Amino acid sequence: MNKLYYYRAVILLIMLLILAIILYQALVKNANTDTEPLIDFVIGVSQPNLHEPWQILMNEELRAEEAKHDDIRVIYADAAQSTKQQIEDINTLNKYGIDLLIVSVEDSSALTPIISAIYEEIPVIVLGRGVEGYNYTLYIGSDHHFIGEMAAEAAIELLGVEGGRVIEVKGMASALKAEERSRGFREKISESGNIEIINSVAANWQRDQAEDELTSLLKRINQRPDLIYAHNDAMAFGSYRALQSLGLDGINIIGSDGVTNPKGGLQLVNEGIIDTTFITPTGGKQAFQYAIDILEKKSEIPKKVILRNHKVSEKDNIDQYLNESSSISDKDGREKELTLGFAQVGSESAWRNENTASVISSAEQLGVNLIFKNADNDQQKQIAIIREFINQEVDVIAFSPKVENGWEKVLQEAKDAGIPVILSDREIDVNDSTLWTSFIGSDFVEEGRRAGRWLINEMDKTGLKAVNIIELEGTKNSAPAVGRKQGFEEVLSDYPNYQIIDNLSGDFTLSRGRELMEQALDSYGNKIDIVYAHNDDMAIGAIEAIEDYGLKPEIDMKIISIDATKKAFNALSTGKLNYTVECNPLLGPQIMQAAKELHAGKEIPMKIITSEETFTQEEAKKEMKKRHY
Predict the structure, then answer these.
(1) DSSP 3-state assignment of 312?
(2) Does the chain have fewer CB atoms within 10 Å around its N or its C terminus?
(3) Residues 459, 474: one domain?
(4) pLDDT per position as a tens digit, 433-461
């Protein structure tokens, strides 16, 4: 009997011990669960290759930012320079249920369709190298055409008055980055008159391929080059090795990317292996920061952020760059009182009035001491206002230029005074790009393209064999007029049956739009099929003229405009306007933020392009209640 009690006691003790172990494990598991951070978002990163130093630096920047956020999980994919693999990677990442995709593109043509498809489902940030069209949330990268121009200027300087022969070592043929760098380089070189591009090879951004391709080319041709322009530093180093293997000395080499890694561009310049490189930020850090803003649904997300590049040659203090990151660090992060002088172009339209209101209200909200003056559409008055700001020793000048040309002298005065200049909503055409610091506004060429694409798609449904168009242009030689005309006519150039039968130049005002349309109707009457107005005010003026003439908008002719103000939405909702392309006037917050960062000694992007939509009659009815301007 005692034995029976003994066995029962032992069994009970064992069961209690097992239960205690189970409870302990459960408590430990719960404790671990409590300490593990919850994952709020999952980001997918698709890289084309992690062999190129510039791509490696981009990845390092992304991982450094990821380490600061325990609540975000990032899944990385490396396609190892296979376009097919990168397409598969992007599809796989999407199947994992990622909340946002960051993609660095190598083959722009092949990647554009898949990126467009993913963009229909989740936000997409395109990084470093662009894709075709606007089907993405945000692009962060450099102005590669401008980098090509900078490389050409460096080549002209290196070759001097005697000029010489150049071989171009290109990146991937189907990459927009390579196409734009090549075009910028060749356009600027053609102006020199004493430099000849004798040949080119494509080396897909790779050092070894550049060495092999250039070696093979130099053995075939019977011409010694004076300079090699390689689209990146890896290929520049490969070019150097090719020249060394053939015993060719004294040939200048220009690269681009300027990373600080061993055998990166800065080190190559420092060692005298290449002559010049251009620091080309990867945008990895900025991409992660914008990704968080997008996922948290913050407003004021731009469409494009164009980062600033820096030329580095043997003449420069290379150690200064080697000891810093590829983007210039803050000089002084302290808050200082900021005085901003803003020279507004005029009050020519509803869009401009909203733009003015945005600038004034944003300055008040962000504590900026704003000196605001209106030039009343007079360039000379605007120049005088800028000079007044210089004399007042403001900290930053911002202005919306009336036209593209004629600003060199006054902007040189601002530069000499050490006052940075921000261009608001319109760009300028000057030989020295250092005369201005940053542009904040729209992509006017893309606005014109969007208008053109809608027109083609819409009119193809009608079956008309010939389409006659009246174009009501904005202020002559102004950036919006030039860009919107260029983009629209670029699209139409592939369709010979679409004819612009007259271009009439106005000044973006309703009264002028009405007057020009009256002239067009007197000349062409009901032969007009389409009216393309460079802004809403001129479109509304045209509608009034059409109705007074006894014709009906929409029935007798279709009307397209740009700006997407409330006037346009009213016209869309009543069936008098057919399509409008948005041009966001609410630039105040971004201008104030840029001015504050400049004043704090920070480097800001070269260009910030605003995000904008397009609206048909059906879409306008849904959007109209939310529209405040």
Answers:
(1) strand
(2) N
(3) yes
(4) 899 999 999 999 999 999 999 999 999 88
d(CA 411, CA 407): 6
Looking at the fold, whether 71 and 154 belong to one and the same domain comes out as no
Dihedral, CA atoms, 590, 596, 599, 601, nearest 10 degrees?
A: -80
Looking at the structure, tell me whether residues 159 and 174 fall in a common domain: yes
Give the count of domains, the chain. 4
CA-based end-to-end distance of the chain: 95
Residues 387, 385: Cα–Cα separation, whole Å: 5
**Order of strands, edge to edge, in the sheet holding 100-104?**
72-78, 41-47, 100-104, 124-128, 138-142, 304-307, 607-609, 438-441, 421-424, 396-399, 339-344, 369-374
8 A C-beta contact, residue 287 and residue 120: no
User: Is residue 193 in a domain?
Assistant: yes
C-alpha–C-alpha distance, residues 70 and 451, integer Å:
44
Domain boundaries, position 404: 339-442+586-614
Please state the three-class secondary structure of 57-89 as a single string: HHHHHHHHHHCCCCCEEEEEEECCCCHHHHHHH
Q: Both 484 and 578 in a single domain?
A: yes
Asked if residue 148 lies in contact with residue 200, where contact means CB atoms within 8 angstroms, the answer is no
Tell whether the model's pLDDT for residue 172 goes beyond 50.
yes
pTM of the model: 0.83
CA distances from 161 to 178, 192, 194, 447, 519 (A): 28, 10, 8, 41, 53
Share of the chain above pLDDT 90, in %: 77
In a domain, residue 170? The reply is yes
In a domain, 574, yes or no: yes
67 domain residue, yes or no: yes
- 155 neighbors 166 (Cβ within 8 angstroms): yes
- 2 — pLDDT class (breaks 50, 70, 90): low
DSSP output for 531-562: EEESSHHHHHHHHHHHHHTT--BTTTBEEEEE
3-state secondary structure of 183: helix
Query: Can you spell out the DSSP letters for 86-139?
Result: HHHHHHHHHHTT-SEEEEE-S-HHHHHHHHHHHHTTS-EEEEES--SSS-SSEE
Strand partners, 257: 279
Question: Are residue 416 and residue 477 in the same domain, yes or no?
Answer: no
- Which pLDDT belongs to residue 325? 47
Tokens of 218: 């130099």
Q: Give the pLDDT score at 320.
A: 67
Q: What is the CATH number of the domain that holds 538?
A: 3.40.50.2300
- Rounded to 5°, the CA angle 569-572-577 comes to 120
Mean pLDDT of the chain, nearest integer: 91
Hunting for tokens 């009439």 — which residue is that? 504
Report the interhelical angle of 350-365 vs 536-548 (nearest 10°): 150
Which residue stretches of 277-432 are H helix?
284-295, 318-322, 350-365, 379-391, 408-416
Same domain, yes or no, for 436 and 451? Answer: no
Residue 291 shares a structural domain with residue 385:
no
Sheet holding 498-505, edge to edge: 498-505, 467-473, 530-533, 558-563, 579-582, 614-616
Which of 261-270, 504-513, 550-559 bottoms out in mean pLDDT, i.e. has the lowest? 261-270
Q: With contact defined as beta carbons under 8 Å apart, do 151 and 177 qualify?
A: no
Residues 203 and 86 in one domain: no
Residue 464: per-residue pLDDT: 82
Instruction: Indicate the pLDDT class of residue 333, thresholds 50, 70 and 90.
Output: very low
**Number of alpha carbons in the 13 Å side-chain half-sphere of residue 248:** 20
> What are the structure tokens assigned to 153, written together?
């200027």
